Amino acid sequence: MSDVMSSVLCAESLSLAYDKRVVVDGLDLAVPTGRVTAVVGPNGCGKSTLLRGLSRLLSPHEGRVLLDGQAIGELSTKEVARRLGLLPQQPIVPEGITVAELVERGRHPHHGLFRQWSREDEAVVAAALEMTELVELAGVPVDSLSGGQRQRAWIAMALAQRTPVLLLDEPTSFLDIAHQIDVLELVRDLNAREGTTVVMVLHDLAMAARYADHLVAMSGGAIVAEGAPADIVTPDVVESVFGIAASVVADPTTGDPVVIPHRRKRETA
């Protein structure tokens, strides 16, 4: 209970379903505040569904999600947007919108009837563009960018939202290794500078172990193990979660755990 009470974002007995088909079942999770958490597991295990539930895009079938100690379903849409940012998989780019215009949309939750665009908004947008190294591309249409640049533009919009919690659903998908590293370094930098609580879904276990403080390993809609990468990335957990035999060694430079899958033997006729 103490972990739940100290967590900005947590789930209690959370079940999530699509058309009564339960995907996440009775899950409890207290997201470590001010840390980077990576959710890992095989395809179809409920990782992205969990993120949708945590962000209120998907209402609980059972249980609840708490944001700052309040049931997230009881908060207004604008209030949630001020406290929690979400970068979904493959977000849709409005036609013709420039990088700067996209990033400016991150300020919308802070506006209202008597709160219009201000110098503070300009400063926040400028800082987000600088942090993501997009200043020179501010006037370029988003749909003309490379995959890595486009992903940075969406992250810049999330940065401009200035929320204490940021959820990223597979932020490195469809990116080459260099751009994957760029995005994950940006996430780490954001956490270090702002103390932002980050939860991201990742497919690459090695990247998750290197860039996250806390790992949540899922299988079959449930959490199999969670904790520091060095404690979680073990041969037993890898086999339990991914169904493969593997060795785990320490990276000689960083000490991070590295998974070396064993070759599967194929039957010969």
UniProtKB/TrEMBL annotation:
<dbReference type="Pfam" id="PF00005">
    <property type="entry name" value="ABC_tran"/>
</dbReference>
<protein>
    <submittedName>
        <fullName>Iron-dicitrate ABC transporter ATP-binding protein</fullName>
    </submittedName>
</protein>
<dbReference type="InterPro" id="IPR027417">
    <property type="entry name" value="P-loop_NTPase"/>
</dbReference>
<dbReference type="GO" id="GO:0005524">
    <property type="term" value="F:ATP binding"/>
</dbReference>
<keyword id="KW-1003">Cell membrane</keyword>
<keyword id="KW-0408">Iron</keyword>
<keyword id="KW-0813">Transport</keyword>
<keyword id="KW-0406">Ion transport</keyword>
<dbReference type="InterPro" id="IPR017871">
    <property type="entry name" value="ABC_transporter-like_CS"/>
</dbReference>
<keyword id="KW-0547">Nucleotide-binding</keyword>
<keyword id="KW-0472">Membrane</keyword>
<dbReference type="InterPro" id="IPR003439">
    <property type="entry name" value="ABC_transporter-like_ATP-bd"/>
</dbReference>
<keyword id="KW-0067">ATP-binding</keyword>
<keyword id="KW-0410">Iron transport</keyword>
<feature type="domain" description="ABC transporter">
    <location>
        <begin position="9"/>
        <end position="245"/>
    </location>
</feature>
<dbReference type="InterPro" id="IPR003593">
    <property type="entry name" value="AAA+_ATPase"/>
</dbReference>
<dbReference type="InterPro" id="IPR051535">
    <property type="entry name" value="Siderophore_ABC-ATPase"/>
</dbReference>
